[in-house]
Amino acid sequence: MGALNHKFNENILITSLDKLLNWSRSGSEWYFQFGLACCAIEMMSAAAARHDLERFGAMPRSSPRQADVMIVAGTVTLKMATRVKRLYEQMAEPKYVISMGSCANSGGPYWQHGYHVLKGVDQIIPVDIYIPGCPPRPEALIEGLLHLQKKMREESVLAKKEGVS
Amino acid sequence: MTEQEIYAKLASHFGAKVMAFVEEETLNPTVIVEAEGITDVCNYLKDTEVLQFDSLMNLAGHDPDGESDLSVIYHLYSTQLDHYITLKVFVVREHGQVGSVANIYRTADWHEREAYDLYGITFDGHPDLKRILLEEDWEGHPLKKDYVAAEFYRGMRIEKVK
Questions:
Q1: Residues B113, B106: contact at Cβ < 8 Å?
Q2: From the list B134, B142, B156, which residue is nearest A118 (CB)?
Q3: Which member of A2, A4, A96, B137 has the greatest number of CB atoms within 10 A?
């Protein structure tokens, strides 16, 4: 930090606001606790003792008001799609979406005959990270969360977020 | 009691309302019943001392090919006497009507709503006949084989893949 170096006492750190915010955001990916299908089982497994998502500061929250990340884990039926959209709108900024598994990415196995399935949750809400798999293993979800951390660390407070109108 | 004996008992009691008995290798022995008579038949099956069909295991709609009549199939079981019977009712494709057995077997309540939702079969006398799986504003009954998916639902595109 050039001119400001060694001007303060030992326990005062100097950084940019962006870095501070990004550090705190990426270290507390509180995800919204809801699941739509079998992907949710893998999400639960990722959160439980063996994979322990809290290592990364990610913990489930039951209210959209407290959640930072929405993990769309499973088949988004047209009936559920309106609810998913409303829940997304109820989350406070900054908010992120992870589309987990083939169904949320593109309709998955319901691609051809799924008269009742939304073919990709990105049709209704902006998605930050797509995780392939049917369902993805917990390791894949963890990698997705780590990629999201990386994305968060490169953000700037003043820059407009992509995909948000 | 064997299915044959149960059919004989039904036929002698109801006459023409009980139309036929079908035995095929791959299917359960089935009694074909007239649509208006199903409530009476189920009441009789449940209350008769030697039959005691106290459990409706399943109730399902069926569309064989998209052209011929729809049907409703009832799988009954007696937990007291350990015997089974399958009933079948044919209904027309559009606005078909069957008597409801929801007041006889509580199981039938949601099953009949499912058959109504997915096949469009109306059950007369059902306590609360409305869609159970799809939204109230959904158009059509998707398990009918001549169902054509809509292009949009509430502004969301339903993509069609050939």
A1: no
A2: B156
A3: A96
CB atoms within 10 A of CB B104: 18
Q: Which of B79, B30, B35, B88 is nearest to B57 (CA)?
A: B79
For residues B100 and B91, give the distance between their C-alpha atoms in angstroms, rounded to a whole number. Answer: 13
Q: Both tokens of residue A142? A: 């963890």
Instruction: Kindly tell me the burial class for residue B67, based on how many C-beta atoms sit within 10 Å of its own C-beta (0-12, 13-18, 19 or more).
Output: exposed
Q: Please, which residues 80-139 of chain B have a Cβ atom closer than 8 Å to chain A?
A: 134-135
- ipTM > 0.90, yes or no: no
Domains with residue ranges and CATH for chain B: 3-157 (3.30.460.80)
List pLDDT tens digits, range A108-131: 899 888 889 999 999 999 999 999
Distance between CA atoms of A46 and A53, rounded to whole angstroms?
6
> Can you tell me whether residue A2 is helix, strand or coil?
helix
Closest by Cβ to A82, choosing from B154, B157, B161: B154
Give the pLDDT band (50/70/90) at residue A13. confident
Closest to B58 (Cα-Cα) out of B10, B105, B7, B122 = B105
Q: Is B111 helix (H, G, I), strand (E, B) or coil?
A: helix
